Amino acid sequence: MAEKAQPVGRQRAGSPEGGRPPTPPAAAAPRILVVEDEPTIARAVADRLTAEGFAVETAGDGPSAVERARSYEPDLIVLDVMLPGFDGLEVCRRVQAERSVPVLMLTARDDETDLLVGLGVGADDYITKPFSMRELVARVRTVLRRFERAEAPAAPDVLRLGPLEIDQRARRVRRDGHEVHLTPTEYDLLGCLVRNPGTVLTRALLLEQVWDWADASGTRAVDSHVKALRRKLGADLIRTVHGVGYSFEVPS
Fold this sequence. Notes:
Layout: E1 31-35, H1 39-51, E2 55-59, H2 62-72, E3 76-80, H3 88-98, E4 103-107, H4 112-120, E5 125-128, H5 133-151, E6 158-161, E7 164-167, E8 172-175, E9 178-180, H6 184-194, E10 201-202, H7 203-211, H8 221-233, E11 238-241, E12 245-248
Parallel strand pairs: 1-2, 1-3, 3-4, 4-5
Antiparallel strand pairs: 6-7, 7-8, 8-9, 10-12, 11-12
């Protein structure tokens, strides 16, 4: 028996039966590169991040981490400090020299000097071993959210403040016409300061606005990043108000 002809014109092209519009494609999952030389830890972190909806690749040493970051182009790197080949600090330096990407450092060292060194080479946040997977996922989401929020430019697209030029759409900074490479967090901190020229911003406010840290008493993250900005942009742009915080000053 011949099949009954289907009615014509009952469905719109591309719509499933019943006239419902097609389901839009899901947004691409954020790409995470996990760099950890302990296979058990690497597997546990990768499995948890995958279960949380992230696309995950792994690397187990310094040289392969740099190569994987170059080919995979992750949205964030979870990076152990102690690695064979060369350590995570060197990985961070090399990766950030090629492309700005948020970095969450994993460290077994609780010494503040080591943490400040890590932040100085371009890390955006750190978490100390042992850590809970819940805390790790929360930190990953916070760093990604901060970076995505900062990517939306405010008008005007280009800010010119004395010798400084900030292209907010491209997230590029120039001083006296020369481009200066900033890490994502350095750029966000500079942006927070230049939006409030001449106003003293406390460390607590900067931690909340730039790092999304509601309580980070004792951390030197702001001081470390201000030091890096001064080294790259000159010491005349950011004024220290001792015991309070920092302010952006446009040179005359």
